[in-house]
Amino acid sequence: MTPAFDPAATSVLDLVAAHPATQEVFRRYDRAAGCCILCQALFESVSGLAARFGLDRDALVADLANAIRSRKEP
Fold it and tell me: Which contacts (CB < 8 Å, 24+ apart) does range 42-45 have?
């Protein structure tokens, strides 16, 4: 399934602004990243964030896409 956003081009800030439900996903990844993602990587692309902090990019993108989809359903 194609994500609702381009992970290479979409920043954390843009994603959170457009889809507030993604904040919780980023918070769940804070421990793995070793920092507050929303504090330290707000201007990173999602792909750049995963690379910078050694996160599983595919899992992160899937979790973010699921959060976006779950908020669109009535």
Answer: 42/11, 42/12, 42/13, 42/16, 43/11, 43/12, 43/13, 44/11, 44/12, 45/7, 45/8, 45/9, 45/10, 45/11, 45/12
